Each structure stands twice: as C-alpha cells, then as structure tokens.
Amino acid sequence: MAVLRQEADPGEAGLDAKALERLDRELARRVDAGELPGFLVAVARAGRVAHLTTYGARDLAAGLPVEPDTLWRIYSMTKPVTTVGALMLVEDGLLSLDDEVGRHLPAFAEPRVYVDGSDDRVRTRPASGPLLVRHLMTHTAGLTFAFYHAHPVDALYRAAGLESSVAPGTDLAGTTDVYAGLPLLCDPGTRWNYSVATNVLGRVVEVVSGSPLDVFLAERVFRPLGMTDAGFEVTDAQAQRLAELYGETDDGIEPVPGTPLRGRPRFLSGSGGMVASAHDMHRFMEMLRRHGELDGTRLLRPETVRLMTRNHLPGGADLRSAGVPPHDDPGNEGVGFGLGVSVVVDHSRTREPSGLGSYGWSGVATTTFWVDPGRDLTVQFYTQVRPRSSHTVYRDLKRLVHEALTD
To answer: What is the pLDDT of residue 390?
Structure first.
C-alpha cells in the first residue's frame, strides 16, 4: 500500500496558503452542516503535492475518519482509465478508433435508430453509418442511460431492466448484448449523449485483449503505474479503509447501497466499477500530465495523450450545444469532450474558473479530478455522497483552487 503525502510547501509551488485555508474552510463547512460526511482534497503543481487535507468521517456510524489512504468508489472516474486501456490497444495495433464496433461485438453490426413509438410499437430505421470505437470514447454513440427521462429510448432502457446499467443476472458480455438490442437515440457520431458507451468500450477491450477487463487494467495500467489499491473489488485487508456511501435526503445524508466490491463482481463496469485511493489517482493523473509516461514507465505516446485531451465533438461544439437533453445545461458551456475526458475549449464561457485545455472527469458519488496543462496543475477531490441533483461543491472547489494560484 502506498499513501499520498504532501511533498512541497504551497508557496514554493505557486499557491497562496491563505487561499487554500479558505478552500478547506468551505469544504469543512459542508461537512459540519451535514452535507458531506468528510472529504479529501489534494492539489499538486509540477507533480508535487503542495496541499493535502482530510476532514470528517469516512464512516459516520463507526466514527472512522477520512485519512490519506481511504478508498473511494470513483464511479465514472473509471471511464478515463478504461479509455486509456483501449488507447493502449490502439497503440499496440490491435484496435483502431475507426474500427466498427460490430467487428469486435457482432451484436452491434447493424445499429438502428429510434424513430417513434413506445413499448412493443417502436419504429426504427437503419443508422446512417456504423458505430465506431471513437464514438464510444466520445459518447457520440447514440447510447443512453436508463435513469434519464429525456428521450423515449431512455424508457426502453428501463423496460429492459437497465436501471443500474447492468442487465439483471448478466456479466459485461451479456449486458452489452442487451444494449445492442435497443435502438440508438441518434445516428452515431452526430450528437453527444453521456451514456453506457464506456461499458461497451470495456467489452471491446476484453474481446481484443483476450483478458477480462479487471485483469487487463491491472496488468497494463495499475501495476505499471504503482496504483496499489485500484481495482474492481476490495480485499479483506482493504475493506476497513473503504468509505461508506451516502445519499442526500430531506434531512441530510444517510447510508445507501453502493457498487458491490467484496469479492470479484460478475459485471465489470468500465463506466463506473472502480475503487481507488488518492495515491492511485495521483499516479494516473501524473501519467497524463507527463504525456503518457511516469517514472520511466510509458503507457501512451505523447501524441496519443494529445489526441485524448482535445475536443472531438462534431463541429468543435461544446457539450451544451452538441448534446441532447438533459445535457443542454448552462454548466456545459465552454466544455467539450475528448476521448474519455471533458476538455475546456472556451474558459471565458465556463461557469467556474477553468484553464483552457484543462481535462478530467467526475463520479456520481461527488468525486472529481482535473489536469490543467497550462498551469502544471492537478487537483482531486473525494467524498461519498450521491446527490439528488447537481452538487455545487465542484463549482466552489474550482473557484477556490484558482483563487489560490499565484503564478
């Protein structure tokens, strides 16, 4: 086990210590108000952690504090990790961004697009073009989530039992076949819709590599980077460090069921199945910040990281203009999407301060990370609360971190 530690004085790293104190006070206020159980926040410049704070509880009932080695369900922060694994296969020559998904997963060979109707009276038409691997990475595949209530295809996902994005009683292969049997909500490559696409990408990784997703990522990503706690399950030795998961209620927060992590899960979710420590994600962010290499180990070529972290949305659009509801939110202005990560394309239009070219992603339990290449900055934040709506903590986090920058 490796633990994240502060390595540099804030002033030496171009950070204002008093501004960082304001950041900590705001986050602690949310804990003291019962909005969050506890948190970990870490800020690094040029690869050196210059601010690391833990506060509150990882388990309120047990009275266990958040510590630097606490383990977190990172949910959708799994997506960039899965995408890196797939890009490694691209560099190996085993996969191409322009491969038709149906080449590797035959159930997707003839995608159809929703026209109208519901239940057993749905009308579809052939898609205008094939579903490509790049569409999975950019969430322009026309897939969706069952928990949306914005499009008739969302309801078809619910009717298929995909409320949790997994078909009951199936593994990753079986679930992706269920996805393939449902219509797309738009032609591949035409619109952005955040979706189960990275689960499909995870299955592509399995088929192309010949290994289960958890084994592949452990051998090709986690071990080479020294991500010593990262994975899809927790051991008996790790279990005590795992943070409890909470959900928002009218009266505050209360424990809710989370992704099963004791024992190897049958369904290996490339979209949201990982657990990791702050040390693990620091190593992952550093590999990206250093253009694919860390401590002499190269996972990706610099040009691949550049490709991953530039906007790929049709016409160079941002998420608000390129997405279908519910993505037409003002908070999506100025933010595009690369391969597995969001990318700031116009920092003058973002809701919170953001460096041009900054990239990263968040998880549903209120976890987030970003890399700001222009400022040589990486930031990560963890708590474990599934909010009922969008959480304002991200906005305050970004504002207060940027207020701390002195150069």
So the answer is: 67
